[in-house]
Amino acid sequence: MDSASFTSPAKINLFLDIRGKRPDGYHETLTWMQTIDLCDTLTLARSARDFSTLRSDNSSMPLGKRNLCIKAYEAARAAAGDAVDSVEISLKKRVPLGSGLGGGSSNAASVIKGLNVLFSLGMTDEKMSKIAAGVGTDVPFFIRGGAAIASGRGEIISPLPSLPAPIHLLVAKPEASVSTGEAYKWVKGYKGERDLDREETAARIASGDLQYVMDRMFNCFEEIVFGRLPALAALKSKLLDAGCVKAQMTGSGSAVFGICPDEKTARSAASALSADDDTLFVAACRTI
Questions:
Q1: Which of 37, 172, 196, 284 could cross-link to 270 by cystine, CB 3.0-4.6 Å?
Q2: Which amino acids are annotated catalytic?
Q3: pLDDT at position 115, please?
Q4: Is 225 exposed, middle or buried (0-12, 13-18, 19+ CB in 10 A)?
């Protein structure tokens, strides 16, 4: 096999709370994440060069060693040794940057999984997750995707069952982006106490209890980020006005997602919001 292409899905945080700062400088978090069918496309091709390269159709994306894709390649090569040769990574972006949708982390996970396929490394999900943990906070989650509760600094993953039917969503992002590092500075000193019971959550999901999902939705960043960027609060209101039954910011922002009663409502809302001059990106999606 000389090349292979992979989809690289975005995620939403249905629940996100910070439990405080750890001695190692990272934050202790508790989050419920879910992949959605808003996806980048990543292609890995064997290269005759002595080094690996990354190219993308998004000129705003950082390249070289600042990009998580290259960091993921180097981590996987360090783990696999001579079994991994140089590659050319081509990335077609659809997930907006600076949105809290996890695009960069998902791309990094796709590199690790892609190298496993391209070079027939035979790595298990557990092995790939261990490599991913050294690359970035949300990267281990994307090794399996789906629904999961993540804790620690994001490396402890407890998979959840899939809902019997997908949730239809509207995802939107204003022009403003949010730096994750800045967002954590804004919540400095915050220590949440909300809990998320894995067994109850798994049982409710398996039974298709969408009301439970909406009742548990929470993001500790939302109030603080909205206070600094009122355009995000306005965007959330627009999603609700467009027909979403519940809306929330994902990650540290700046994207906001809304739960829609059905696919028709999601598509109609996306069409209406696409005409809004203050909304940079909008898409009708569903959970996967």
A1: 284
A2: 11, 138
A3: 98
A4: buried
